[in-house]
User: Fold these one by one.
Assistant:
Number 1:
Amino acid sequence: MRLLRQITSLNVLALCLALNSTALFNAAIDSLRHLPHKYHALTPIYTSENIDEGIWIPEYDLHTQNYKTNHVYKPIPEASAGISLLEQAVEAGSSDAAAALGDIYTFGNFLVPTNYTKALLYYHKAIATKANGHAYFMLGYMYSTGMFGEIPQNKQKAAVYYEFAAKNDDLNAILVLANNFYHGIGRAADCGVSKFYYATAARKTMSVLSQLAPETINEFLTYNIALPDYNGGIYGRRVSESPSSTTNKVSNFLALRESIRDLNFESQDSNLIDYYFNAYENYHGGHFKDRNYTEAYVNSIMCVVQGDEKFGGAYFELATDIDKYFLSKCHGLLSKLYLNGHGVQRNLTRAYAWLRSAQKIYNEPETLLTFAQFHNLDPSYTGGFTDKGLRYLRDAASNNSARAAFILSKSGIAPKHPLQTTYTKSNYDLVKFAAKKDILEALFYFADAVESGFGASVGDKYECEHVVGFYKEFVERSEKIVLPHIKYAFEEFRYGNFKNSLLGFLIAAEQGLINSQISAAYLLQQLEPLFPFKKKIQHGSRIRSAIAYLELASAQDHLDATVLLGDFYSTGFNSANISADFTQAFAYYSKAALSASSHGCYKLGYMYEYGLGSPNNTKDYFMAKRYYDLSRKYTKDRDLSQLSQIKASTFPVTLALLRLRFKMLFNGSSNERELDSTGWFSTFEKLRKSKEVEKHENTAQAKSEAHLEGGNYDGDDEYETFDYIVLIFTIAFFVYMALENVRGHFRRMDRRREAPGNQNVNAEANNRFGVQFFFAI
Ligand SMILES: *[C@@H]1O[C@H](CO)[C@@H](O)[C@H](O)[C@H]1NC(C)=O
Ligand SMILES: *[C@@H]1O[C@H](CO)[C@@H](O)[C@H](O)[C@H]1NC(C)=O
Ligand SMILES: *[C@@H]1O[C@H](CO)[C@@H](O)[C@H](O)[C@H]1NC(C)=O
Ligand SMILES: *[C@@H]1O[C@H](CO)[C@@H](O)[C@H](O)[C@H]1NC(C)=O
Ligand SMILES: *[C@@H]1O[C@H](CO)[C@@H](O)[C@H](O)[C@H]1NC(C)=O
Ligand SMILES: *[C@@H]1O[C@H](CO)[C@@H](O)[C@H](O)[C@H]1NC(C)=O
Ligand SMILES: *[C@@H]1O[C@H](CO)[C@@H](O)[C@H](O)[C@H]1NC(C)=O
Ligand SMILES: *[C@@H]1O[C@H](CO)[C@@H](O)[C@H](O)[C@H]1NC(C)=O
């Protein structure tokens, strides 16, 4: 009896202690939750005004273990109370409090200076008493990266902690494992296991997504950006070949503003368009502009008022189609704002009225879809669509609305629970259509259908790599839910906290996000292949890390990263104890060339021309010429397909080709593999003619396309430059030959003085033949 009482009182005490630490932890979280955002009321160093001038990362200082920046922030004073509560909670044995403190010292929350050693201690404390998925993950991450040399790197420990974290349902760790198994990082590659992990991550993501309002999901803003793209890409605007990550649906649409205004020149009023674009920008926000629904509401009201003034009643006929389209869009946006209570009090009656007027002005399938959704707001709604709602939905789907197609298919695929799925041919087709049209959740169900074998049963054959690709894309596009550290990294970058930014990008890089791998490499070792004069001190360990992340990006076919690796290996890095390795460089250039990289082909041609890293290190002009030609072809293809205002320059290739031509010429016709055995002048003629034909085709096509897009076209200089270069080389060539001739003439004159008169005629004939011969080449 006494024993029992003792045990009970012990239990009570233990309970008290546990309650006490939990209470402390909760009190701490309560006090910290209400603090303003860490950068509240501070000005970022990169804004929408200055970002177009490009970005610049200061040098890293090994001694202070930070970048040499003037932006030093002080901790938020109000946070200290909460932090000391957390410390008390840790004392009382709270695992969650230890993990929270670990995060504060890792990520610099509340602008607390980071201290990775301290953070590591806290994470270890967090897992001392009970399992904690997040703390396991952070330990895995810290040991895997070594935190830029601040704690000892230990890949074995990292692997163990990642496994623990994944077992404890940590989504971040699951993604790291999925990526590591796919690319065989630290283990043998195994697509099957990778697929398992990606599917797990995707299902977790989907169960969160399904609780959000459907309209918000496709309006996620992504921060998945490769930082060098703000400078036009790793190699700047003209040479970089990887698609830019800084544009998205919103920025692409906003970029149309000018061209649409130009197209609408017949209109009486183009302010309408400006109002709509402003409303759209405020509604969606951007990387350098916060959302502001109030502003969006004001802009759309202005747009509607202007529209009524100009085109109300009898004047409606004056409006161009473009005016009508944008006026209808303004009405539609107002309806959306009323419907969701954004920027204005929620009012369904008004929302419905605005939608009706939007439809009257300009009929669009998306309007039908919104009508369908309205019918769900009916008080008699029981979960299924009303007949009328269903009719709207079908109409919208048959008018190509991907969203409507998805909603229709989903009611068949997963009627009760988002993860309990059954497929039929018709809803599989609908969901496939929606997935192709970029509907986020549709991507999940499509991948799920393929993985469950339904895809194969209707004749769609996909490999393991494809399924992994679908899941990976789904998870990465759900960034807002799954990968909040990317937004963190971007924000830290904007406020000049590059060390924290690197931390965030590195987590995503470990999880296989290609743009984050590039950003991480960029922050680790400021790759500025364009500005060799801005040389910074390079640190060996950071260069090696940067190369490792570039290699991961290259494994995912990032062209610029592949070429850059080639450049690294062809020069070598003394500070990183990496000596020049032409074979390696050659391999990277070949890889890029195989993926139709014009830059890669150029470099490969160069390697062949000088016999660097080519098979047996032999010079091979034939192969060199082939790759230079390919390089020029790819550049042109790219210019045509992109229709970008900035044309890639073919100047270096042209120069290289001419150089090569001379080399071939002087190496004589003994080079039997040379293709242009017909001689210099005819080649020149041929080249010029083919250029002429191409030029006409190119300009005609590009001009017509540019016209369609409303852009302007000026691509003529490139060909003029080419002609000038040819001209200069031709003149140089003839001058050289003329000098040679004159020299020969003098030599012969000397000889003639000594020789008997009879042979003069022969020498003369030879001489004349020589001159003719030269001009006939
Ligand atoms: C927690 O428990 C300790 C003793 O175990 C006590 O001194 C302290 O006041 C308690 N704190 C709270 C907030 O209950
Ligand atoms: C980081 O934390 C550790 C352990 O608490 C401490 O010894 C060290 O001095 C701290 N470093 C800095 C720079 O504050
Ligand atoms: C949004 O715009 C309104 C009006 O211009 C302004 O008063 C408000 O502060 C803005 N809100 C935010 C969050 O910037
Ligand atoms: C919604 O708008 C209608 C029409 O303008 C108005 O009669 C009604 O009172 C509003 N409802 C609310 C809840 O504000
Ligand atoms: C959509 O398609 C239906 C036929 O399925 C047609 O009656 C309707 O007018 C179309 N609506 C729009 C907005 O094009
Ligand atoms: C540099 O690398 C070579 C071989 O790769 C190795 O033998 C040498 O010890 C390294 N030197 C340093 C300082 O790491
Ligand atoms: C390289 O040289 C070796 C020996 O000289 C020769 O057997 C081999 O065929 C050459 N390889 C190539 C690709 O030329
Ligand atoms: C020049 O021609 C000779 C004979 O064919 C060949 O062996 C040599 O490799 C060529 N030189 C270069 C640099 O290609």
Number 2:
Amino acid sequence: MNIPVFEPSLGREEFANVEEAFSTGAISGTFGRFISEFEETFASYCGAKYGVATTSGTTALHLALAAYGIGPGDEVVLSTSTNIATCLAVVYLGATPVVIDAERRTWNMDVDRVEEAITSRTKAIMPVHIYGHPVDMDPLIEIAEKHNLLVIEDAAEAHGAEYKGRKVGALKDAGCFSFYANKIITTGEGGMFITHNEKVAKHAASLKTLAFGEEVRFQHEHLGYNYRMSNLHAALGVGQMKRIDSIIEQKRQVAARYSTLLTNVKGLTLPVEEPWAKNVYWMYALLVEDEFGISRDDLMARLREHGIGTRSFFIGMHAQPVFHKMGLFRDQKCPVADDIAQRGLYLPSSLNLTDEEVAYVCDAITSIQAEQ
Ligand SMILES: *Cc1c(COP(=O)(O)O)cnc(C)c1O
């Protein structure tokens, strides 16, 4: 057996749309019906008024912070346990990232630690809904309102995940998504910034296309970027949107199967779904505790021998050499993030994973443990 950690699943509709974009020559990021259709359907799916499609999740995050005018001297509070893109967006703009340790249940930002990190320079909080489970947003929004801060969600792993019945990404000011090949829905490469704020959306839409002048096209008032999603990519996104609910349902079914088969394995901490949450299980993630008998790294190596692909958790931003070289986070301690970074892995999580494959993975885990 060979079971990769992830394989994308694309349908006929996606193919037909790409063919249309191709055959009509609408292949760039400035022409074609799929760009605005994708922006509108995705934003409205998330409960936001406006969507601005970009080339990646990273560029969506960068664009979002730029559109809100984040820059040098500003501080942005974010979870240390994340894809580096969240932190890079802050650094690209010359602002200062301030990272918060994770909590051990959902592996998200520990909301109880946010307030102590706020200073007079803090401008925004960026919660990251890690591996598909939402952050506990109400207390976070309360802190943000008390200190007059923006909340910009990094929902790159959590399309369709819900907090108290509302979809993530539009729970306060804005949200950012990725449509990389392994995300909940994909355009190959791509991203989107969503917001309720018309002014910010218009500004972001202009910034993403080099901030061309409104009256005199080649006279620029703002520092723009070329972060335009092409119509070819948006064509895939429009096709994927037709299936998003069934994709999420399949993700949840794969997770439920894993949890049923792994629940009695000693020393594994399985992913949770808090009573207020709908987890979309972007990846089926778990922790390998000491009681399991072998380390996370050894388990990953042994699973590889069985043809099973896995991936380890993110290493916290506070532990990244690139940021230490810049003088950031040098003395910062995030013990929970460090612990889960060492113990966490995710199992194969493709949509088309069969019941037999899930059972094969779980059998491999129990037999590796039994051999100790
Ligand atoms: C994937 C991801 C990103 C970056 O998205 P890209 O499309 O790869 O640039 C940002 N944040 C999180 C949490 C992610 O998982």
